[in-house]
Every structure is written in C-alpha cells, then in structure tokens.
C-alpha cells in the first residue's frame, strides 16, 4: 500500500522535490554515460548545451517538470498498485511506447513555450529518438518512483 494517495503528494514532503530532482539528474547522467554511437553524441551534445547554457537552468527545469511528470505517471502507478505484483519499472517497460509519449508530452509543451532558441534547437535535435531513450530508462524511472512512493 503506497504511503501517498497520489504521486504528486510526494512532492509536498519537505525537501522531496529537491531530492527527486537530484535523483532524476543522476538518472539522466547515468543513462547518457551508458549510451554510445552517433545518436548518443547528439544527445550528449544537446545535454551539454542545456546544462552549460545557463548555470542552474537544467535543475530548475527538472523541478518545474516534476509535478507534470508525476501526473503523467499517476495512471500507471494506480494500475500498478492495483495489480500488486512485480516492479513498477517492469510495469512501465511493458507499456513503453505509451509511457514514453506521456512523459514526452511534458517536455514537448515546455519546449514549445520556451523563448530560448538554443533550448528549442537542442530539444529538436534529440526529440526524434527521445521515446526510445526514455523506454530504455523506464526500469530506472520505475525504481525511482518506488523509492519515494512505496
């Protein structure tokens, strides 16, 4: 039985948003380190642009995205906790394309609203393959959610 009624409730705990943001940044960096090839070079380059463009910008954006990401994961978490078996990461993997697009809807909306051309350009450079990268990371995403919600 989860300690929280919804995933968004987790963010109400003191310091939770900062800790989850730090864990997400670490997750992204681990996923990037594990990637290789031409698409990885573009992805790593875009990440470098975003993280060095303005100090603190990336962490601020992660923190701003978190409530919306939690909302996108909520239906999956509700179904998962009702089923009561396995890991949330495995549950997400089984629904990979659907989950990836749900999460990307958050970043798509943010990129569209951004007034920073360099950010839009960096996002546009990686958006085409983003769903695949997210699907690869779903076991870690699930584990991160379970760390805070279970």
- Distance from N terminus to C terminus (CA atoms, Å) equals 7 Å
The tally of strands reads: 0
**Strand portion, in percent?**
under 5%
Integer-rounded radius of gyration: 15 Å
Q: How many structural domains?
A: 1
How many helix segments?
Answer: 7
Order of helices and strands: HHHHHHH
Shape: globular
Largest sheet: none
Helix content: over 70%
Summarize the structure.
The protein is an all-alpha fold. The protein has helices at about 5-10, 15-35, 40-55, 55-85, 90-95, 95-115, 115-150. The protein has one domain.
List keywords for this structure.
single chain; 150 residues; mainly alpha; globular
Question: How would you sum up this structure, described in words?
Answer:
With 150 residues, the chain is mostly helical. The chain has one domain (7-149). 82% of the residues lie in helices and 0% in strands. The chain is built from seven helices and no strands. Helix 2 packs across helix 4, helix 2 crosses helix 7 (117-149) and helix 3 crosses helix 7. The longest helix has 33 residues, at 117-149. The chain is globular and about 40 Å long. The termini are close together.
Helix-strand blueprint:
Layout: H1 7-10, H2 16-34, H3 38-53, H4 57-83, H5 88-93, H6 96-113, H7 117-149
């Amino acid at each position: 039985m989860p300690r929280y009624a919804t995933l968004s409730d987790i963010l109400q705990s003191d310091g939770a948003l900062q800790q989850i943001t730090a864990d997400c940044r670490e997750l992204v960096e681990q996923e990037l380190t594990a990637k290789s090839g031409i698409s990885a070079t573009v992805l790593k380059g875009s990440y470098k642009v975003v993280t060095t463009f303005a100090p603190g910008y990336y962490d601020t954006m992660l923190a701003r995205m978190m409530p919306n990401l939690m909302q996108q994961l909520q239906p999956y978490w509700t179904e998962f906790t009702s089923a009561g078996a396995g890991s949330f990461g495995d549950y997400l993997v089984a629904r990979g394309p659907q989950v990836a697009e749900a999460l990307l809807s958050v970043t798509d909306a943010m990129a569209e609203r951004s007034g920073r051309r360099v950010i839009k350009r960096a996002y546009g450079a990686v958006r085409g393959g983003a769903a695949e990268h997210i699907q690869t990371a779903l076991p870690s995403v699930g584990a991160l959610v379970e760390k805070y919600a279970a």
